[in-house]
Automatic annotation (TrEMBL):
One of its GO terms (cellular component) is TRAPP complex. The keyword Oxidoreductase does not apply. InterPro entries: Longin-like_dom_sf, TRAPPC. It holds the Pfam family Sybindin. It comes from the Eukaryota. One of its GO terms (biological process) is endoplasmic reticulum to Golgi vesicle-mediated transport. Keywords: Endoplasmic reticulum, ER-Golgi transport, Golgi apparatus, Transport. This is Trafficking protein particle complex subunit.
Length: 141
């Protein structure tokens, strides 16, 4: 169970890839999948939470980078913020063995497949087939 989101520095969802099936898919509307609008709202909300948590700092003299993980009963969310403000978000099972390693590899694939693509405009939705294949290979493991 994994889902990757890429959120640009303005809080817009520029990439979303889902690789799991909801256990009760047959009895739920849309098979348990969220609509594209719901993903956009979630990405914007997470962006806002990340910005707020970056300002919460109970330890004097130490810089806080914002929300890095959120644990729930059935899933966990890992956030990796890049130096440019782009956020890579992995929603996965709490039992996932190496979510940070997967995020790092997704970021490397993004740098190689997307940012080096002369037809890609930064901060816009990602539509690069090579990146889709790389993410699918990383998330289906």
């Amino acid at each position: 169970m994994s889902s990757l989101w890429i959120i640009n520095k303005a809080g817009g969802l520029i990439y979303q890839s889902e690789h799991f099936v909801h256990p009760d898919a047959a009895s739920l509307p849309n098979g348990g999948r969220l609509s594209s609008n719901e993903y956009l709202v979630l990405a914007g909300t997470l962006h806002g939470i990340h910005a707020i948590t970056a300002r919460l700092n109970p330890v004097a003299g130490r810089k806080c980078s914002g929300l890095e993980s959120l644990e729930a009963d059935g899933f966990s969310i890992r956030v990796m913020a890049t130096a440019t403000g782009t956020k890579f978000v992995l929603v996965t099972s709490p039992a996932h063995p190496n979510p940070l390693g997967v995020l790092q590899k997704c970021y490397e694939a993004y740098a190689d497949q997307v940012m080096k693509n002369p037809f890609y405009t930064p901060e816009m939705p990602v539509r690069v087939e090579g990146f889709d294949r790389a993410v699918e290979g990383l998330l289906k493991v």
